């Protein structure tokens, strides 16, 4: 319930402003009617109200509805644009990863000493050093029916970091499906054991067999996403 309120906070504020302005207009008419009665005697007070409430309601409603629709459309447009950008970013990085380096990994703690693991990790760190809103980039593989982590760009002391071979406990189902479909995409906001994110993912294919050897994902924290959208 709290999460829903926070997501819709801008609309609640919009409605609150609408009610405040509506009440202000009502009081404005009452004020002018009172002045008219006090100083103009028997003359029709409403004719001296510069903005009669009954004349202001319709245009105000039109302005409100138009503003609401434009705000909603603008937010959706920005959301779609940002999803397209991070998806392109994920696909670009995935396209630069040598699948043979991934195939050389066991996706276990032993990989930390593997030159292929170190090379891919440095490659990911290099890419994210040029971005500001991306929280992290990481790779995944399926081992013994479980989704596990591989090379990633996080420092080892980062609370988001995971060791190679660590099971991704609350992974989004689309990450798993990508190994079967080979299709990239965006998901979220969704919540896992590390936080709430909007993510893009892209598979890395073996050049010979065409199988998906890893799925690369890019995370943007949901709070950062909402600040823009």
Features:
alpha+beta, 19% strand, 5-stranded antiparallel sheet, disordered N terminus, 229 residues
Q: What is the CA-CA span between the terminal residues?
A: 20 Å
Strand fraction: 15-25%
Mean pLDDT: 81
Number of strands: 5
* Helix content percent band: 40-55%
Structural features, described:
It is a single chain. By secondary structure, this protein is α+β, with helices and mostly antiparallel strands. Helix content is 51%, strand content 19%. It has helices spanning 2-7, 9-40, 53-96, 99-103, 115-128, 173-181, 222-228; strands at 136-143, 146-152, 185-192, 195-205, 212-221. Strands 2-1-5-4-3 form a 5-stranded antiparallel beta sheet. Helix 2 runs antiparallel to helix 3. The relative contact order is 0.11. Mean pLDDT is 81; it is low at 1-7.
Task: Quickly describe the structure.
It contains seven helices and five strands, in the order αααααββαβββα.
Show the helix and strand layout.
Elements: H1 2-7, H2 9-40, H3 53-96, H4 99-103, H5 115-128, E1 136-143, E2 146-152, H6 173-181, E3 185-192, E4 195-205, E5 212-221, H7 222-228
Antiparallel strand pairs: 1-2, 1-5, 3-4, 4-5
Helix pairs in contact: 2-3
């Amino acid at each position: 319930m709290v999460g829903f309120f926070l997501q819709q906070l801008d609309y609640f504020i919009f409605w609150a402003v609408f009610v405040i302005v509506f009440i202000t207009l009502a009081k404005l008419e009452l004020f002018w009617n009172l002045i008219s009665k006090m100083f103009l005697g028997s003359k029709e007070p409403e004719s001296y109200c510069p903005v009669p409430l009954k004349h202001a309601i319709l245009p105000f409603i039109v302005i409100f509805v138009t503003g609401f629709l434009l705000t909603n459309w603008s937010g959706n447009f920005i959301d779609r644009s940002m999803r397209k950008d991070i998806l392109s970013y994920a696909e670009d990085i995935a396209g630069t990863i040598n699948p043979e380096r991934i195939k050389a990994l066991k996706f276990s703690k032993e990989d930390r000493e593997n030159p292929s693991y170190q090379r891919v990790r440095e490659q990911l760190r290099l890419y994210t050093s040029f971005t500001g809103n991306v929280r992290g980039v990481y790779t995944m593989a399926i081992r013994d029916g479980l989704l596990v982590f591989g090379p990633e760009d996080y420092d080892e002391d980062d609370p988001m970091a995971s060791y190679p071979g660590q099971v991704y406990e609350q992974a989004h189902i689309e990450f798993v499906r990508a190994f079967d479909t080979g299709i990239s995409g965006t998901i979220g906001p969704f919540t896992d054991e590390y936080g709430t994110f909007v993510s893009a993912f892209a598979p890395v294919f073996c050049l010979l067999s065409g199988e998906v050897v890893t799925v690369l994902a890019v995370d943007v924290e949901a709070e950062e996403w909402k600040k823009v959208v």
